Amino acid sequence: MRGRRPVWAALLGVVALASAACSGDEPLTTPEGSPISTTVTRVAEVNIVSADRDFSKTCLAPTPADAGTTDAARIVVTDPALLDALCALGIGDKVTAVTAAPGSVPAYLGPQLTAVPAIGTTPDAAAVSKADADLVLTTPGTAPSSKPFGAVRSVTIPAGDWQKQFRAVADAVNRSDAGRQRLAEFTTEATKTGRRMDASHTQVSLVRFGDDSETIAGMDTFAGQILGEIGVQRPGPQRVPDSFPVDDADFREAEGDLIYVSFEGEQGQKHGEEVLLSDEWLNLGASMWKRVLAVDDAVWYDSSGLAAAWLVLNDVKGSLDGNS
After folding, report:
1. Which structural domain, as residue segments, surrounds residue 83?
2. Which stretches make up the Fe/B12 periplasmic-binding domain (predicted)?
């Protein structure tokens, strides 16, 4: 049975500057009326990387259309996963609707895109009329959602890795040149970061906590790919494409010079907190040397695109040589 620390120790592991007593309370303010930050900065004695991240700054600056091409003014997207590319190209303001369920737009894309109407997978005539699209971007799996838009130009983005998909979206919105430039900028910065931080001499472990599981993230995961772009090394057992479970009675395969942990939802965080405070975990060298950091699972794993890649890169920039 896994060794546990007292419950009060777990409670001390989460530090918040302030919190509301209940969901109906007014935001906390100083006597002068300034808002008080409620950012949680630690979980189970582990620092959270980029805890104060401002998602309103995720999207990049606008890019111009290729010379001699027609620029779409109103874009509908049938798959929320395609929004990352539009965000990275700086044209999120052109999106007028997403044919998906409400709440399906990833939060990391910021308020501009999370505010776009989600009109369901089979939008009615009124929603189609209001979207007034002159371009519909779709994927093979969501193509039926483009049918209500009739004769409006539709482009299907084929499946592929995140860079291939980004280039396909850039081509579809007549920004092939800008797309190539944006990818080149990222690759250059990732390489520079790796050299500057001597990433090739750091072995980084990636561990995800599920409802009742611990998983080593493989090199083919989104986070694994971005670490590879930076030049970060992985511990020997983790140099495999696919993710695999780790035995919570023996965390040796999770060991590294630095361990990035993340939580799959609320239950994943609850389980993760228990593990992070267990005797088995605390016996790891990285834990003893305070070299365990928590990252945003939704950005590092559930996302896949250039905008998210920049967020992961910036997380690494600010934490590869840091302690928990």
Report:
1. 75-174
2. 74-324
Q: What is the CATH number of the domain that holds 125?
A: 3.40.50.1980
Question: What residues contact residue 59 under an 8 Å CB cut-off, 6+ apart?
Answer: 87, 88, 90, 92, 109, 110, 112, 113, 307
Q: What is the mean pLDDT of residues 215-224?
A: 98
pLDDT at 260: 98
Residues 242 and 291 reside in one and the same domain: yes
Which backbone phi and psi does 161 adopt, to 5 degrees? -70, 170
Based on the domain organization, do 27 and 138 belong to the same domain? no
Q: Is 100 left (phi over 0), alpha (psi -120 to 50) or beta?
A: beta
The residue with tokens 């090739």 is: 200
Give the single-character DSSP code of 193. Answer: H
Alpha-carbon torsion (246, 252, 256, 259), positive or negative: positive
Question: Does residue 153 sit in helix, strand or coil?
Answer: coil
Those residues with Cβ within 8 angstroms of residue 34's Cβ, 6 or more apart along the chain or in another chain = none
Q: pLDDT digit string (tens) for 16-49?
A: 333 333 344 455 444 455 444 456 799 998 999 9
- Is the residue at 63 inside a domain? no
Q: Which residue has the higher pLDDT, 4 or 128?
A: 128
Whole-model pTM: value is 0.87
Domains of the chain: total: 2
What distance in Å separates the CA atoms of residue 234 and residue 59, rounded to the nearest whole number?
A: 29
* Domain presence at residue 61: no
Distance, in Å, from the CA atom of 308 to the CA atom of 12, rounded to the nearest integer, reads 31
Same domain assignment for residues 14 and 123: no
Q: Quote the strand ranges of the chain, DSSP E.
A: 42-43, 46-48, 75-77, 95-98, 135-138, 154-156, 204-209, 214-216, 244-245, 258-263, 292-294
